[in-house]
Amino acid sequence: MTRLVAPMLLMLTLGACHGARDADTLMEQARQYRARGETRSAIIELKNALQKSPDNANARLLLGEVYIDAGDAASADKELRKAKALGMAPADILPRLGKVMLMQGQFQKLLDDIKPDPASPRQTALLVLRANAHLGLGETEQARQLFDEVLAKEPDLADALLGQAKIAALSQRLDLATERIERALARHPDNIECLRFKGDLLRLQGKEAEALQAYKKILALQPNNTQAHIDSANLLIQGKKLAEARAEIDAARKNAPGSLQVFYTQALLDFQEAKYPAARDTLQQILRAMPDHMPSVLLMGSVQLAMGSYLEAELSFRKFLDTYPRQVYASKRLAGLLLRSGKTDDALAVLEPLLEADRKDVELLALAGQAQMQARRFAKAAEYFQAASDLAPQTASLHTSLGLSRLGAGESARAVVELEQATTLDDKRGRAGILLAMTYLRNQEYDKALSAITAMERHDGKNPLVQNMKGGILLSKHDLAGARAGFEQALALDPSYLPALENLAQMDLAEKKPEQARQRYEAALAKDKRNVGLMTALARLALRRNNAPEAMRWLERATAEHPDALTPALLLANLYQGAGAKDKALKLAQSLLTGHPADPDALALLAQIQVANGNYEAGLENYGKLAALQPASAAVQLRLAYVQAALKDKAGALDSAKKALRLKPDWFEAQVLAATLLVESKDYTDALALAQTVQHQRPDLPAGLTLEGDIWMERQKPQEALRAYEQAFKMSKLPPLAIKLHQALLKAGKSKEANQHAAQWLQQHPAELSVRLYLASAELSAGRYPAAIGLFESIVRLDPKNAVALNNLAWAYQQEKDERALATAEQAYRLAGTSPAVLDTLGWILSEQGDTGRALPLLRKANTLAPDTPDISYHLGLTLMKAGNIIAARRQFEQLLASGKDFPKRAEVKAKLDTM
């Protein structure tokens, strides 16, 4: 029994001793851990101390200091402010809070909150903090003055010598920076901050191995120094030693799992390893806690760019540059992104200030050249590419770009010189060789093109692209057998090489062998069963053969096996929309945009389908997003204008149409829309000015005069319209102009001249239908049924399947009590059985002939398809009355009157309702 009791007593005694440790004991233990660099253990001890004594200001202060050691600025700030609230003296708190502000980049806040105090025992520390804040804000002169002031009093102060070294490094005086930091370390060899700066300075000089040794010396002094592990990891990431970097990050995480620097460096490693979602998620955690942590903002922009989230990346880069204007790396990345998004002018606005300061940055010059190329300012592009090429004359890509700019400027000879130089520098004869061959091809110098591609063949003959190019050149030389051999050779190297397959298929189609083309694609697909390009090519081939169902099957298979593939999904959605499968089209377009949120084609497709389905508000929102993505696109602005016009936003529509014209000043469609909107707003002066602009731009074409005539007609001034139309008609006797001229003559009260004009047109163009159909319809509307019948019969003789003419002829026959009315209406119905007008004509003829049984289903369908057409509603109501369905007829007439629409039979409908 005693043998059991003794250990029990020992355990109780030990437990009692442990439990009896007071806050001071725990704090002392924490200090010991801190001295050994075991910050995590120190934090645990201090938290235990604060559990026992929550209001212990000294414990809070010490915990804040340990958090600073761990790089956890947010936690340090929290603890130090608690210590201040508990009565800790400002002289003890402010220097630590200042360090935290520096860690968080809150430089201006530090200057605002921490003022010099000559009476303070910590005045020197406060001045050093303020000097570092000025340094952080780029105010190097103010920083230098403060560091000099401190060193005048304390010549060997490590923090001040470190500050002078930083200033020297910023001004590229690396020898002076090295002298200052070595002086500091000679007096303070174990100063962690000085050792760290020495490592940073060596890294800046490209001495990575020596820099790593400096960080390792810190770890020899403090094995758990989080910052030294992080610095080592960053250096290793830079040197692509990612496994070693991961080990350093893991070591830092063990000691300071909540450190912002650990999170950031992990995100940087994930980015280097192309683990973009992981990097993004980590950066989101940082930015939720510290939205203005600029290194994370910059890295987030790079991650978003890599993931294709271009709008989000642009916002991140711009946020970073708002804080650090003209920072070169961020500016380059933003400019490249803007160029990719088509925002050429915005990209130039970012690049030009940098170019004013530095004309020796090759990448910067190349980006500026690319921007000028995109803006089609080829001479300026050549200037930038030439400057970059002068700095890096052995860079093949620059000679290639310079060649392209020469080509754009129409300088084919100079382009060839640059491309030839690029092919000389590029051992593999890659892009430059292809471009050189294509340039010769464009110049129709086929033998030179063949020589260029033959030279490539010697170096890269097993590249299917080269063989395909060779086939294309031989095809241009009309060597069909040689071309086919080249394409076949490309396929022998890669059986799924689509460009060669497409070239062979084109040759098959030219020889009227579409089945052979289809078999060629299917044979390739049998070897590569999931090849989305081949399935899409088969769909395109089916469309060329007018076989939409087969095309749809191929595209459905392609999108099922490759849900993220853009091209087949775009084609399929358009096919669905064209086939009337609106729900399928919309669902596919929405899914496509989810997978490609920043893709302009996906966004445009969804907007187009939404508008086609009548959802103008959603279409407007997405066209707005598309306009933000493609601000230089006139087509997008015009689409936006049409949707705004449909939503009755005439001012917005006019603004968008004007934007389209600023981007493309001679776009006639945009000019017509803008003029129409101006006329609707009664702004006839600007509308006519626009018409005159069109006339100036196209003096040999009738477009501008026709537009002017249209404006005068809208203004109810047919005489002026007539003069414009007559001038236009002299230029081109197009059917639409013939119709407009006839309408203007009638409006001007010149019926005789109108009839002569019509008769002359019909005599001179006996087989033309559109003017004949217009004249026949005009006679029908005027109630001149015999004349209308004569014209419609002549149209039907020319075009027996013209449903519009047959329908109107049937209606005219019925008005004349001609027994041919029903048979003619039946003909129209067989041709266009879903047309509301055709359904109404046949239904009403049947109703008037007493066959309400057949008439009612036709008229109901017509009314469903065109519920806002009063004549159809009226015919349905009367037929319901005839059929004895008085209740339904009353309801139909009441709905017709409630619609508020004016129509000739309104009084008759009211009278009938009074009798029902």
From TrEMBL:
Signal peptide: 1-19
TPR repeat extents: 192-225, 362-395, 769-802
Pfam families assigned: TPR_16, TPR_19
Keyword terms, alphabetized: Signal, TPR repeat
PANTHER family: CELL DIVISION CYCLE 16,23,27 (PTHR12558), CELL DIVISION CYCLE PROTEIN 27 HOMOLOG (PTHR12558:SF13)
Name of the protein: PEP-CTERM system TPR-repeat protein PrsT
Biological source species: Duganella vulcania
Chain's gene name: prsT
